[in-house]
Amino acid sequence: MSLVDKNRLRVGLVLVGVMWVIVLLAVVMTTVAHTSRLDTRISLSSAERIRCKWGSRAGVETAIAVLNDDFATNYSDSFDDLWASNPADFNDVPLDGCSFTVQVSDEAGKLNINTAGKKQLMQLPNMTEEIADSILDWRDKNDDVREGGAEAGYYVNLPYGYDIRNGNFRTMRELLLVKGVTRALLYGGSGAEITEDSAGWIHYLTCYSYEKNTDAEGNSRINVNKATEKRLRRALGISASYAKWIVDNRKKGFKGIGELISKNSPATPKKKGNSRDSDQAEPLDMETFFRIADKITVTDEKLIPGKVNVNTAPAAVLLALFEGNEQVAADVIAYRSGLTDGMADIGDLGQVKSFAKKNVAKNFIDRLTTRSSVFTIHSSAQAHATGALGKVEAVVDRDKSPAQILYWRAGADY
Q1: Which end of the chain has a smaller Cβ tally under 10 Å, C or N?
Q2: Per-residue model confidence as pLDDT tens for the chain (414 residues)
């Protein structure tokens, strides 16, 4: 090979080497660029998740503020309150790079699973005898198995066994541990709009509701099991004959204020006459009973669990509460719909003809309230840039100061 050929060969090899270096550099640059873009996306995704997390938290705090403002101005709660319908503060509220939407529901508008009886549970959609018995067995403190229920032996012998509660439910999702309860029964159908046919039990049941043992003005109620005749007369504005009847008939103590309704209770007060003697005991008339119903109690407990807010309970809950009495449930809904701010106190139920019947009022007046303390807040935040979504479910007791979070679940959805 001549010298010229050798030089040409060297030049060719150098060119090939340079080309390979360029190719390698291009590959490296492409890889670096791809990795950089990936890192940027990961960083953006992480930032958007954090943004949505705090955006949904902002929604919860906004809802708490609205609940507190409402509590300061209204002592009864209904669907006319701002927490129930507040597009300006709750719907697509813009923040920096995201927006949040909030929905608030009243826990007192649901049937309390820790106090409901079997007849009430059986009125819920898709409820069975076996599941109702199993719910009651789960919460009772004994090991006696109901006909269709289950106690400790059933649960510990499952493939992945666990202990039965033998006490009150602490969260609603604890229901999933009860024999026969499925996710479909608890959460119901899917879709943007929940109807009574598709709603699961989580929309009808609660374990958080309670009522403060005070009247509509915030005053402590009069305990009819302890108050003297004089105290009953002065505090409630009732006649001596009514006060005497209460004292004479309380014996071991009334279990509920409904027991003040006697089979001999007249519809309206008797006309007062000169011969009326204060030492002649007479049962309360229905009109007087409803007038004082919100001012009396049978216990000194500060909080009474399980009361259902007659202003906010949906038809399915009222039907269950009234143990299937469709007429009473429909009449209550019709009556409250005609009021601007709902019923002020349970005494207003005396205006509902079907409820004012002695047997109905006697059985159900102790289970009702018009005031609420615990609410569930569903807050979701969506990022504008990526569409990332953050969700929070919080159960809040607004009566505490500051408001107390009873349950918190990030990413919760139905």
Answers
A1: N
A2: 666 666 666 666 767 776 777 767 766 676 655 555 554 555 556 888 888 999 999 999 999 999 999 887 778 999 999 999 888 889 999 998 899 999 999 999 999 999 999 999 999 999 999 999 999 999 999 999 999 999 999 999 999 999 999 999 999 999 999 999 999 999 986 544 445 556 899 999 999 999 999 998 889 999 999 999 999 999 999 999 999 999 999 998 999 999 999 999 999 987 765 444 467 899 999 999 999 999 999 999 999 999 999 999 999 999 999 999 999 999 999 999 999 889 999 999 999 999 999 999 999 999 999 999 999 999 999 998 888 899 999 999 999 989 999 999 987 443
Cα pseudo-dihedral 36, 42, 43, 44, rounded to 10: 110
Burial class (CB in 10 A: 0-12, 13-18, 19+), 248: exposed
* Strand positions, DSSP E, 268-309: 296-297, 303-305, 308-309
| Phi, psi at 407, each rounded to 5° | -155, 140
Burial of 254 (0-12, 13-18, 19+ CB in 10 A): buried
Count CB-CB contacts under 10 A for residue 354: 16
Distance CA 207, CA 306 (A): 8
Distance CA 22, CA 185 (A): 64
Give the C-alpha separation, 31 to 15, whole Å. Answer: 24
Give the strand pairing for 389-397 and 404-410. Answer: antiparallel
- Looking at the chain, the number of H-run helices and the number of E-run strands are 12, 13
Full-model pTM: 0.85
Task: State the Cα torsion 188-109-301-64 to the nearest 10°.
Answer: 90
Euclidean distance between CA atoms 216 and 27, whole angstroms: 77
| Alpha carbon 121 to its chain's center | 16
The single-letter DSSP state of residue 256 is S
Residue 315 CB: number of other CB atoms within 10 A? Answer: 13
> In this structure, how many other beta carbons lie within 10 angstroms of the beta carbon of residue 270?
11
Alpha-carbon distance 139 to 169, whole Å? 7
In DSSP terms, 295 is beta-bridged to: none
Backbone dihedral region for residue 158 (phi beyond 0: left; psi -120 to 50: alpha; all else: beta):
beta
